Amino acid sequence: MRRLVLLAAWGIAQAASAADFRPWLGPTPALQLRDLDGREHRLADYRGRVVLVNFWATWCAPCRDEMPSIGKLRRSLDGQPFAVLAVNLGEPASRIEKFRAQVPMDFPVLLDADTATARAWKARFLPATYLVDGEGRVRYAHYGELDWSGPEARARIQELLGRIPRKAFESAARSADGENRARLAASAR
Fold it and tell me: Regarding the domain with residue range 19-188, which homologous superfamily does it belong to in the CATH classification?
């Protein structure tokens, strides 16, 4: 019971500070997971891009509620070196696919079946979201629901995009363009 009360108090505190982006202290944890199609994704593969890493689950109401704003943010940054990785905690692919049929997600959904990656990232509460800079380092953490298409989130992401050298920016944009074409081709099948 005490744990439930503490969790509720934490949730209220998070709601009160919805735009609270905490600077990340310490090294960036590893991220190497497979997506729903079995393709492996490593955080290192996204160097040169700002990456939003979101830990979520279908049973988590705030996670479900914020997912459309993450998609809106990603689409608004098409052509820029920006990527989203949605890391699902321990759920079967069938449940995730059912959710995706209701809430389209045009970014990779990675499977953290044993939740080891979430533990390494200190994602103790959901949703837990991290902003990674173009050099592959976590810069900010946000715990709780947020409108990711809103001005606070966009300002943090634009700050990180502004640190990417122009040459890397162009290379990452070409790479992101290729991913968008592949996503469109896969969805047409």
Answer: Glutaredoxin (3.40.30.10)
